[in-house]
Design brief:
By secondary structure, the chain is mainly α. It has helices spanning 2-12, 15-34, 42-67, 75-92, 97-122, 126-145, 155-162, 176-202, 210-232, 239-257, 259-269, 271-276, 281-307, 318-328, 340-359, 364-390, and strands at residues 164-165, 237-238. It has 2 domains: 3-165 and 236-254 and 283-386, ABC transporter involved in vitamin B12 uptake, BtuC; 167-234. The chain is globular and about 60 Å long.
Length: 392
């Protein structure tokens, strides 16, 4: 009975987060069975990483926006404008690929600064500001491209989203480099978890039973290394996965270990208390929107590189996918709650569902219905969880 109690405690200690991982495992298992294992094949797993990487990049920025109590409806248009600017710089003006990357990031920063000014210093709600931005930046995209698509981009630029790192350490039918990188990541995760557990014990905080802790580490390590083996047996480590991993690590530190991160949570949790505590609310809000613009620029580079060009209609509905990923990943509608890793898991849930339904041949209409219901259930779960906590 003690073991059952420990499992129950582990799952209910943070029901919002534990529910996400349980749902993720269940959805993966369901579609793996329905597709006769095709979902988890090396080729398909690699395609999922390549096809949905830009949504995951946007989800990182969007969850920070939502934690701060805002919303951003313009990120899809910023993605399109950033990609269009990069394409014009490289194709029409003949500049090197890295100049195109810098131009896209600069556009993202300018868009973020523009919207941050109206939100933070003028006081216009982010919903209205970014709704206007969605129209404004989409119109600028059409102007920049003269209403036509532009391609192809230089091979080095396309390699950002379509290239792989493999063969560096050799391997007989598989890529050793991929396995080594993932093994290092697993070692880092295990070290971090052990360190956090020891710190919690030192401060006399409640921790789970040791057997459960070890079981969790073993399961996570096994799943990660299995995923690494699948990638290693296909084409190796995708460049976009490296970019995404770096962003996840950086923003996990930013949101959990920096003053800016703590202030974002404070503003989203209780704006009045944050203001009275001396938080520079205007500048933090400006930083939130500026950061979202930067990540939209990164997503614009990734998307245009994968598309091998720029199109006026690029990025449509990206903002809804990013918002859905954040809410499914545990962000609260009222702000103040959410994690970068949760947003990534939420994005992966959306990616797995979309890819699985595509493999099963479902029409786009059915896919939209299912994703809409999942988003609604995720928010309903958040509301129920708050009521449950308030009733205690």
């Amino acid at each position: 009975m003690t073991g059952i109690a420990n499992v129950r405690e582990l799952l209910t200690r943070n029901l919002r987060q534990s529910g996400i991982y349980i749902a993720f495992v269940a959805i993966v298992a369901l579609f793996a069975i329905l597709t006769d294992g095709k979902l988890l094949g090396p080729t398909n797993l690699t395609n999922i990483v390549l096809q949905y990487s830009y949504i995951l990049v946007l989800a990182i920025g969007m969850v920070i926006v939502i934690i701060g109590g805002h919303i951003d409806l313009s990120v899809g248009s910023v993605v399109a404008l950033a990609g269009a600017t990069a394409a014009v710089v490289m194709i029409k003006q003949g500049q090197p690929w890295w100049v195109g990357v810098l131009a896209a990031l600069a556009v993202g920063l300018l868009a973020g600064a523009w919207q941050g000014f109206w939100v933070a210093f003028v006081g216009i709600p982010a919903f209205i500001t970014t709704l206007a931005g969605m129209l404004l930046f989409r119109g600028l995209t059409f102007r920049v491209l003269d209403n036509i698509s532009l391609s192809p981009v230089p091979a080095e630029y396309a390699n950002i989203a379509t290239g792989f790192q493999n063969g560096l350490f050799g391997g007989n039918g598989y890529d050793v480099f991929t396995l080594v990188i993932f093994a290092i990541a697993v070692a880092g995760y295990v070290f971090s978890e052990i360190r956090k557990r020891r710190a919690a014990i030192a401060y006399k905080q409640t921790v789970g039973a040791t057997p459960l802790f070890i079981t969790k580490l073993v399961i996570v390590a096994a799943v990660v290394m299995w995923f690494a083996w699948q990638l290693a047996n296909y084409r190796g480590l995708p460049n976009v996965l490296i970019i995404l991993a770096v962003l996840v690590l950086v923003y996990t530190v930013v949101t959990t270990r920096t003053v800016f991160g703590r202030h974002v949570y404070a503003i989203g949790g209780n704006l009045t208390a944050a203001t009275l505590s001396g938080v520079k609310v205007k500048w933090v809000n400006f930083g939130i929107m500026l950061n979202m613009g930067l990540l939209a620029g990164v997503a614009g580079v990734v998307y245009s590189a994968r598309s091998n060009g720029a199109q006026p209609s690029a990025g449509e509905m990206f903002e809804l996918d990013a918002i859905a990923a954040s809410f499914i990943g545990g962000a609260a509608v009222t702000g103040g709650v959410g994690r970068v890793t949760g947003a990534i898991v939420g994005g992966l849930i959306m990616a797995i569902m979309t890819n699985g339904m595509q493999l099963l041949g479902y029409e786009q209409s059915i896919q939209n219905i299912v994703k809409g219901l999942v988003l609604l259930l995720a928010v309903a779960f958040d509301v129920w969880n708050k009521r449950r906590a308030g009733a205690r």
